[in-house]
Amino acid sequence: MSVNSEIIQAVKDEFGEGMVYAVDRKERRIVLTVKRNILKKLCKFLKEKLEFDHLTSIAAVDRSGLVNGMIESRLLYYDDYEMVYHTWSHSKKTLVEIKVAVPKKNPSAPSITDVWSTANWQEREAFDLMGVKFSGHPDLRRILMPEWWKGHPLRKDYEMSPGKWFLSDEDEKEEYVLDNQKPVFPLDQKLAENVKTEQISEMILRIGPVHPGNHGPWLINLKLDGEVIVDLDTQIGYQHRGLEKIAENRTWTQYLPLSDRYCWLTALSNNLSYVLAVEDILDVEAPARAQYLRTIMLELNRLASHLLWLAAMGIDLGNLSGFFYTFREREWMLDLLEMAAGNRLNYNYGRFGGVTFDVDDKFVKKAKTTMKIFRARLQEYIDLYDGSSIFHARTKGVGTITAKAAKDLGVTGPLLRCTGVKADARKDDPYAAYPELDFKIPTRKNGDVYASYEVRMDEMQISSEIIDQALDNLPKGPVQSNLGRIEPVGEAISRIEEPRGEIATYVIGDGNDKPYRVRVRCAEYINVSALGHMSRGYKIADLIAIIGGIDPCLGGMDR
Amino acid sequence: MGLYAEDQEQLYHGPIPYIILLAGAAVAVGAIAAVGIVFSYIGSLGPASFWNNPWVRGIIGAALWAAVVGAGGLYLTLLERKFMARVQVRYGPNRWGPYGLLQPVADALKLMRKEDIIPDAADSLVMRLAPIVAFAPSFMLFAAVPWTATYVASEMDIGVLYIVAVTSLTPIGVLMAGWGPNNKYNLLGAMRFAAQELAYEVPLILAMIGPIAVAQSLNGVAIVEAQAGYWFGFIPKWNIFPQFFGAIIFFVAFMAETGRIPFDIPDAESEVVHGFTAEYSGMKFVMLLLLEYVHLIAGAALFVVLYMGGYLGPSPINQFAWFTLKLLFVILLMMLIRAVWFRVRIDQIMNLGWKILLPAALINVGFIGVFLALTVQ
Amino acid sequence: MKEVAADLIMFFIIALVSIFAAVMVMEAEDIFHAALFLALLFTSIAGVYILLTAEFIAAIQILVYGGAVVVLILFAIVLTNRAGKVGEQSLKNLLMRTAAIIGFVALLVQPILKTPWPNEMIETTGLNTYAVGYSLFTDYVIPFEVVSLALLSALIGAVYLSKREVGQ
User: Fold this and answer.
1) Peptide bond preceding A146: is omega within 30 degrees of 0, i.e. cis?
2) What are the Cα distances from residue B249, in Å, to A461, B202, B299, B358, B363?
3) For residues A421 and A532, what is the distance between their CA atoms, to the nearest angstrom?
């Protein structure tokens, strides 16, 4: 592709031969292997000159267990840690993967938080789970594990013996504190434009971990001046289950049900992101009917998730009835999914090279009836929410975020589209049956909670139309390609548009029957890191509306 | 319940549920009318009878009021839950007793048996007295509300003014409830609630001026009697028809005084966890919760007396039944609003109270002056 | 005779309550309790007004003093977080205060005994609300308007002083 060679040429012109270039087999991404000292310059160059404004994910890989090396250059050695950065350009629609070697004896890398602000939380996670220190990071502390945890779990030499799950010495046990960490308020000056109070009197209010307004357990420390939020510190990790580490101890097929359970509301998207990455490594395409079925189920999942978002938004803002109405429609979607996949919440529907079960005509007929009635009901919901001036007053102008700040913070999904950026992985990086279907991507300009509400309502309408189209054009054929036992060698990244944003799974396979590394970049993790920026200068009651607009699902946040 | 999409056509669409509903309503009205007949019989016994002795009447009346309003407040919770449930396409509580009629009893028994926790650092005297001081004004309101032309607990010349004075004592109880437990959340919620109540008291009082001016008296019975008669033979002379804006202002102000959705922020569950009732448990919590419902009945009763003609109505149904019917209508309206509208933010509530409702109430008073000058002379 | 006795008993009860409340306002250790006793004092004075058949004034007393002034004081206490004890009262202080009170009462005894108090209750026609309103708007209309203007200026001043510069 000429775009890829243009980018490679531009980078070569700037940096000379100090790095190794490669393009992957499907021409979907460019792989650059660099040394640590030019990492930051390269990132700045990519962002400012080549318009790579979105940092997708930062993965930390421990190479010391790799059997089939996969060393592409002399810049990487065995026994290193490897930092893998993925950057995406909205305008060029290309992915650049940057690999940096970090020696094991003194694991430190330069921090790229001043280039992309979204690197803040991602680098904290790499430090927490792998132990790589980032120089120049404003606030490097543990994020998912508790403060007093010793060791870094994702390392290959991390001792995992049952029963000894944290401290062993008697006097070390006293460090086990029940309180949460002290709040560290960031207040990064360059992004806080809308705070002008004089800070006459400050109060620190703690919301959570258990609070009826949260969508799960997480702790928010608010620094308040009267009613106005001056600063915000979020502490997550209450639901961290270590799913990335579990992947290294399960076979490829055993991990399929677990991949559902990152964010259980968008189970199919998570599952398919894992499946698509592995299919990419194996160079296998699912049959056409399976692709269409995947599309239908993904869109049904999107409808179910958006309906739950609408219910939560209603009940958070005080409308007790909206919850019950939208859950009634969600039951229909879950019934359809149960007919197809056998389960209402965690479907385990994807297989390498296809899907699990086929559907029959009864499903097609029932789905069409449901979609017809659903579109009428959707209009009722728009009347219920839009017709209330109290709703407008609570959500218009609240939690505004600009497109530039959103791209910088790595926000994706409806939250990004409501600022005016037309970015959707279904169109930019198509998978399943999306290239053959005809649909629009809704955007709005304002960037407040009301705009994200409108974007999601439009998405629900469009999803029901996609389902109708796919049902009409459902091809015949098998739904599985029987691969048998798989032992993939290679690495791949897949990007899927889940209802809340973009989920990117980066899988490394070693020729073993177990994955070597599975890194999942969930949308909610990054969207929630933008909460501080979005809520400074607003009131406490607005915080609930803003959280409703972000629509977090705690499982995806903590994994 | 026919929730599947393709079952929508098979739902029952006949007349039988409506017939049952109307029959049930007729039975209820008949029962209330029977009670009214008993009261009018007692009234007709004459002042020398034992039952009409002021002391006897006072004590029995007070006991009756406490029971009726207490039990009424309790059963209002059931009505609200079932009504709201039907709006939300589900049944309400229907496990305890037929149609859930024993549910409030079960709730009351459960809450009474809960342990009464008073935090160590709290001011225990203030915390114990707070529910009483917050609760008493709502009860005292009913003394001036006329249920029939003769059946008023105490017919005062300053009836409406007494009601207003007593309502203004509620913020004291609320602030006590916020201060007692020595807890940040309680204090925040109590301050917001007290500020909200103070903000809406002035439009409330100003909106009462309309009916008072029409009746030329503060007495509840006089206000109702001034709404007797018909225009054009069939439109009753209720104050709501000429003074539509005053009625709306009064309605909104009373909803804000009570703390119902849309003005629910002080008591909101998902914001500041239950506001100023956060540290209370057991019987005190029950009283603070009932406060909202008794206040609701009081507000509805006041609205009916001032604007909807009180107990007046055509004669086959007696006055007591008319009052109850209108009261139920207003209460159901308030519950419907609670089920379907959103919650307003606290600074928007204050905005609404001071910047919109107060000028509207003042303009309304001006219009009433003009209206009376033109019609009374 | 029976009504007079009932009146007198009620008066004594109310008087005792007011005196108790007034003393406790000074003696209460916690300032929040002192404010609550002030509310009790205002409400019992309203009771005295009712005994004098001045119902309108009684209702206004509860509305203005109990419902507004006391709430204002409570807000001030709550917002400035002035919790806790007010300070120890030494014995010397107590003796001095008692002496001052006795001296003040002794000063008042003579004028009270010498004033010709009316011996019977003046029968009112029961229309005192009407009478108050009428005289407010005919005989005393100018002081009424002046007072309302003064209150308005106080209100505007309070709003202006408490407004803060918020850039939103």
Assistant:
1) no
2) 39, 11, 13, 9, 11
3) 21
Selecting from B3, B273, B341 the residue whose C-beta is nearest the C-beta of A328 gives: B3
A196 to C168: CB separation less than 8 angstroms, yes or no: yes
Instruction: Please check whether residue C163 touches A, CB under 8 A.
Output: no
Q: Are A94 and A129 in contact (CB under 8 A)?
A: no
Kindly report, residue by residue over A470-511, the tens digit of the pLDDT: 999 888 888 888 887 888 888 888 989 989 888 999 998 887
Contact at CB, B84 and A370, closer than 8 angstroms: no
Nearest CA-CA partner of A37 in A141, A135, A104: A135
With contact defined as 3+ CB pairs under 8 Å, the chains touching C are: A, B
Across chain A, which has 559 residues, the per-10-residue mean pLDDT values are: 76 74 74 82 85 87 69 58 86 85 83 87 88 84 80 80 55 48 56 44 71 78 78 85 88 89 88 90 88 91 92 84 86 88 87 88 89 89 86 87 87 89 85 86 88 92 91 87 82 89 88 86 89 84 86 84
pLDDT tens track for A89-102: 888 888 888 888 88
Q: Would you list the DSSP string of A268-314?
A: HHHHHHHHHHHHHHHT----HHHHHHHHHHHHHHHHHHHHHHHHHHH
In this complex, do A537 and C168 lie within 8 Å of one another by their Cβ atoms? yes
Q: Please, are residues B90 and A324 in contact by the beta-carbon 8 Å criterion?
A: yes
Q: What is the pTM of this model?
A: 0.83
* Facing B164 at nearest CB: one of C63, C74, C79: C63
Which chain B residues touch C59 with a CB distance below 8 Å?
Answer: 158, 161-162, 164-165
- Asked if B165 lies within 8 A of C63 by C-beta distance, the reply is yes
DSSP-assigned states of every residue in A382-412: HHHHHT-HHHHHHHTTSS---HHHHHHHT--
Any long-range contacts for C49-56 (C-beta under 8 Å, 24+ apart)? C51/C7, C51/C10, C51/C11, C51/C14, C53/C124, C53/C126, C53/C128, C54/C128, C55/B156, C55/B157, C55/B158, C55/B162, C55/C128, C55/C129, C56/B158, C56/B161, C56/C128, C56/C129, C56/C132
Q: Is the ipTM of this complex over 0.90?
A: no
Closest in A373, A388, A540 to B341, CB measured? A388
